Automatic annotation (TrEMBL), chains A, B:
Keywords: Cell membrane, Hydrolase, Ion transport, Magnesium, Membrane, Potassium, Sodium, Sodium transport, Translocase, Transmembrane, Transmembrane helix, Transport. This is Putative K(+)-stimulated pyrophosphate-energized sodium pump. Its main location: membrane. Residues 708-732 are annotated as: Disordered. It comes from Chitinophaga horti. It is a multi-pass membrane protein. The keyword Membrane applies.
Length: 732, 732
């Protein structure tokens, strides 16, 4: 059973790697005085936001922990320590955001400086920055989950098949709840921050004053660059930390119920497997990072960079598949049983492969819908010729259409992984998909670092070729950001489904007899409707927040242009910190209501209408959240690249249009609409659906106790897993 | 039992009323030569479209009828006559569209002429036109359903509780399928037509050439006015015909299963009730129309017109509630049982009241979200000050937010009507809501007639005060159109749910044992995802079709402006029919794929994955369709009124903006984006979800037979209803 100690070890390895790489980045040249001055401004702004955000969240964490502790203490299948797990999850999640932000605000200026030498060097610095964040997030997750599991198991004296083990996992759910709550606030708050600053800076700077992007005369430019860090780095870091933990945890919850007789780990192999896959995934991701390099003599093209990243990415995915084969064969027994569904270890491996294939297909489809030169983006470009309105119609149509193939792939993935290994298969498919999160995150995070480097290059008036190099990295970063979102939503859907299954199990195990969630019942269907509505109202709040915060930013920038003498000539100094303060204040204020909706709505529905209606609610929210996520992410990505296409000129009906042409202006409108879609509300969807599932899972024992009645309460307590396997065996 | 003959009689009364009113409209003065010439152009264009559309649909109807006939003949619980019922349903639906179009193209020019006298006269002509359509649609529906029921009952020799009665209703489902399929094509085809012409005419006429709306120099102006008739009149007529039939039918299907012992109609009271309510609703609607009048001395304000319409509308709703009380008390026995759920006749009345309340609340909420001067529209106006993009973000946020309250009302309605009278309650709530369809439709249809009258006034250069009067009617028409959509989507949701319940019953009655639709099963959940995606892809196709057809229209108008000499000076005559042909051709071509998706997807899912997955699919499609419908309808309505607000001037941050200001231009962009939302894809959603449910219901017996296996096939045939009641009674 000592294999369990390997798990936190993997986490420590990742954190060690993080420390080494981080030190390497710090040692790089940070450039001239002007550059470091600007970088300092950005870093300070970013830290100011994080400080303000974490301060508010501290209150939330304390209150939530007290409630959780009380709930845990008052229920036999839970424990007050769930509050401790929750707090640790929240702290780790915050830490993940902090590590990412810290390294990103160091790597940005060093990437700009490296770009003065070569593209290869710039890639190295920015990607190393990204991988510090990726490994940091993954390391914290594995360390936290693995470490807590060991401690709790010892504390409760839990063995496979016992009530103590159920309690251990129930308490561990608190860790995931903490992680995912912070993730939601970080994603939404960061998303509002970055887009309010971006849209605000563009509307006055580019459109009204006619100065270029990242011009130091624009008072909102620092806020804009801070936004890249708090939204695309810290927000995303917390987001993926939460997702990663939720996915592994969901598999563990189902693993506890899975009967794994005669395995070499006291029947715990199905619980350990997801953590081991995650741990090994980290090592394979570290190996993958070494593939990401381009030759010093590579020309200035995006193709070489993209190829290097793909090599790293596919490399780690293929390695994961290979290692998973050996791992599964080694630790699992020949046959397993979950809720009467018997499957083999070969089936478990099959489900992992299904997960990897689904993830890959989702990335490819997402890229198709958002990449330059492909049919969807071209259709938006063509529709820009007849004005703003047709550009918008085109983008909305592309976004809605883009739900078709991913939904079919996803449905096929659910179907396939279930056929292979039942509900455990669905969960392990998601875990397999998420195994290379560290690599995914490294690839995702290098984009905003390069974007920031370009901003610093512009503001410090570095030679034009520096910006050209950072632009190449930025362009590749846009593609990886889009595909990363496709990946995230797919894994979220599978994870939500696994959590959903876990929820049904926990409700059942706590005396509320429920065979499933029957939408044929009127009240469950009512729950399905209300759940489906949540992603709409959540998105509405998020994009409205961006619109309103951007308008406040516009007012402030206009005021500075009006009242600060010499600002346009470059002799008067803009008050950057005023704009930073506006974004900070607005984003923190406006993340509250959406966050509250996510956390409170399942609680209200559950306590008011019972566990089965809550099940319908979760299903509705998951389906609608996945669809709205894909719609918004892809529409936003496609609008963005339609606009970018004009930079090199596009041909519409035989005429070539460039920047500043009328069709280009229409495409800028689309891009601005797409900004909150793709960076605020869209990516929040995957956290939203998982967070609501986790909240439900945490309250499930209490709910079941409260609503259990003569109709529903099981006459006997749920059969222990060992009885269950005996029964299945004897039935053969 | 002779009460059943009352039902077609109500239909005949409605058609008689239609004929009388229609003759009255025809007798009105059609104005001067120029006016009649223009009206002739519009009428010809509209008929040309209808002819082209019905020609294509004839092929579809023949093929579908053959397949249906074969399917019906080969299954014991169905019959080849389902093909006949289908064809009659299709013909009646087409006829409903035709009647509406015919009267609208007569009433439009006569309304323009009446407006030369007084607002009161203009309202009278346009509203009488609308009520011809309303009564025609309702009359055909009641005549068709009632008449067919009598004929089929005699043909099969069916009595309550027998297999023959199940067969009668199964065949009657064919009537609804015919009605709803034509409705979908008419709504989508008409919606594409009207918005392609509208957007195309505006983009070149208003924006590029700078000529006003409905200017006779614009070659697309006739097509634009034709569009109002084919989309807002014929399309809507077929749509509501289909909805009305589907709602009544869904209640009948559940009525057949409902055990109504000791009633005075051979146990058939629950089957007859929805038809009787519909029939009486027609009479009450006729009474309601007499309330709709304003004084000759009424000033030129929208308030008086709105008040008159409200009086008519609320009048018929209150009368319905009162009459329903007596009707229910008279025909139903004290207690009824449906699938083991016992309820009283008081409960049935309660459910009807729930339906009326839900419909009323939906109208009020929809009006709030789309009316001028209210918070949502004001927020869009404010966001227009910072440009096109923020206007769009504002409208999208309003649309998404507008799903909140209606969803809660709807969920409450489902919950409440179920509590009152089980699944029969849910269905009868929808039927109660739809009882005053004739009145609703009259109120809805008068708007496009007035809109057309304004166009004719403009083109024939009538005095300015004529247009002022038609504009007042048009403005009121916009509000009633928006509230009508809120009503339609609510009734569609309840109807879809009733059909869903009926589907589960029919599957069970045909030997496939299914307790419900359990979304906890992976395959059912996969179906839920795919179903949820359908409204997205359907909307995408619809709005893209509008975008592309509008672009073709733009090209043609530009060509005419370029090549026809003297066109701008009014000496050269534009080729109106070329534009009419473009809209006609494009709309018919582009309605095919969305139509095919709606009809084929449930068939494919059902045969490939079985009845329970199809259930999940239907639930997903219903939830997502309702939400997407509300989102798109309300966003479109709010954008429209935000734009209209600029006509009288709006204050933003202390400054007043009028037409042609920059914020107004931004609002025009929003309105153009909203056009396909609110008139093409949005209103199609309610037909889509019902059509897919009806298709599923029709194929249910075949599906159940095909997929029945050892796991699922009931050992014994479903208990006959009489046994069922005995069982429930004895259990007490």
């Amino acid at each position: 059973m000592s294999i369990v100690y390997l798990i936190p070890l993997f986490g420590l390895i990742a954190l060690l790697f993080t420390a080494v790489q981080s030190a390497w980045v710090s040692r790089q040249d940070a450039g001239n005085e002007k550059m470091t001055e600007i970088a300092r401004h950005i870093a300070e702004g970013a830290m100011a936001f994080l400080k303000a955000e974490y301060k508010i969240l501290t209150y939330f964490v304390i209150i939530a922990a007290l409630l959780l502790g009380y709930m845990g203490a008052s229920h036999e299948n839970s424990d007050w320590t769930i509050a401790v797990a929750f707090v640790i999850g929240a702290i780790f999640s915050a830490l993940a955001g902090f590590i990412g932000m810290r390294i990103a605000t160091k790597a940005n200026v060093r990437t700009a400086q490296a770009a003065r030498t070569s593209l290869s060097k710039a890639l190295k610095v920015s990607f190393t920055g990204g991988s510090v964040m990726g490994m940091g997030v993954a390391g914290l997750a594995v360390l936290g989950l693995g470490g807590l599991f060991i401690v709790l198991k010892a504390y409760f004296g839990a063995e496979a098949g016992t009530d103590e083990m159920i309690k251990t996992i129930e308490v561990l759910t608190g860790f995931s709840l903490g992680a995912e709550s912070i993730a939601l606030f970080a994603r939404v708050g960061g998303g509002i921050y970055t887009k309010a600053a971006d849209v605000g800076a563009d509307l006055v700077g580019k459109v009204e004053a006619g100065i270029p992007e990242d011009d130091p005369r624009n008072p909102a430019t620092i806020a804009d660059n801070v936004g890249d860090n708090v939204g695309d780095v810290a927000g995303m870091g917390a987001d993926l930390f939460g997702s990663y933990v939720a996915t592994v945890l969901a598999t563990m919850v189902l693993g506890v119920e899975t009967v794994s007789a005669n395995d070499n780990f006291g029947g715990l192999a199905p619980v350990l497997l997801p953590m081991l896959i995650a741990g090994i995934g980290i090592v394979l991701s570290i190996i993958g990072t070494f593939f990401v390099r381009i030759s010093e003599n590579a020309g200035l093209s995006t193709a070489a960079v993209q190829k290097a990243l793909n090599l790293g990415n596919w490399g780690s995915i293929v390695l994961t598949a290979v290692v998973a084969w050996f791992l599964v064969n080694w630790i699992l027994p020949e046959t397993l049983v979950l809720r009467g569904y018997e499957f083999t270890k070969g089936g478990v491996f099959g489900a992992i492969i299904v997960g990897l294939i689904v993830g890959t297909l989702m990335s490819i489809i997402t890229e198709y819908y958002t990449a330059m030169g492909k049919r969807p983006v071209m259709s938006i470009i063509r529709q820009s010729a007849t004005g703003h309105a047709t550009n918008i119609i085109g983008g909305l149509a592309v976004g809605m259409e883009s739900t078709l193939l991913p939904t079919i792939v996803l449905a096929g993935g659910i179907y396939g992984s279930y056929a292979f290994a039942g509900l455990y298969g669905v969960a392990i498919a998601a875990a397999g998909m998420m195994a290379t999160t560290a690599m995914q995150l490294a690839i995702d995070a290098f984009g905003p670092i390069a974007d920031n480097a370009g901003g610093i290059a512009e503001m410090s008036e570095l030679p034009k070729d520096v910006r050209e190099k950072t632009d190449i990295l930025d362009a590749v970063g846009n593609t990886t950001a889009a595909t990363g979102k496709g990946f995230a939503i797919a894994s979220a859907a599978l994870t939500a489904l696994a959590l959903f299954a876990a929820y049904v199990g926990v409700v059942g195990a706590n005396g509320y007899d429920m065979d499933g969630i029957n939408i044929y019942k009127a009240d469950v269907l009512a729950g399905l409707f209300i759940g489906g509505m949540i992603p709409f109202i959540f998105s509405s709040l998020a994009i409205r927040a961006v619109g309103e915060a951007a308008m406040a930013m516009v007012e402030e920038v206009r005021r500075q242009f009006r009242t600060i003498p010499g600002i346009m000539e470059g002799t008067g100094k803009p008050e950057y910190d005023k704009c930073v303060a506006i974004s900070t204040e607005a984003s923190i204020r406006k993340m509250m209501v959406p966050g509250a909706i996510a956390i409170l709505s399942p609680i209200i529905i559950g306590f008011l209408l019972g566990p089965e209606v809550l099940g319908g609610f979760l299903a509705g929210a998951t389906v609608s959240g996945v669809l709205m996520g894909m719609f918004q992410n892809n529409a936003g990505g496609a609008w963005d690249n339609a606009k970018k296409s004009f930079e090199k000129g596009v041909e519409i009906n035989g005429e070539v249009y460039y920047k500043k042409s009328e069709p280009h202006k229409a495409s800028v409108t689309g891009d601005t609409v797409g900004d909150p879609f793709k960076d605020t509300s869209g990516p929040s969807m995957n956290i939203l659906i998982k967070l609501m599932s986790i909240v439900s899972l945490v309250i499930a024992p209490t709910l079941a106790g409260l609503h259990g009645n003569s109709d529903h309460k099981s006459s006997a307590k749920k059969k222990a897993p060992t009885e269950q396997v005996a029964q299945v065996r004897s039935a053969k």
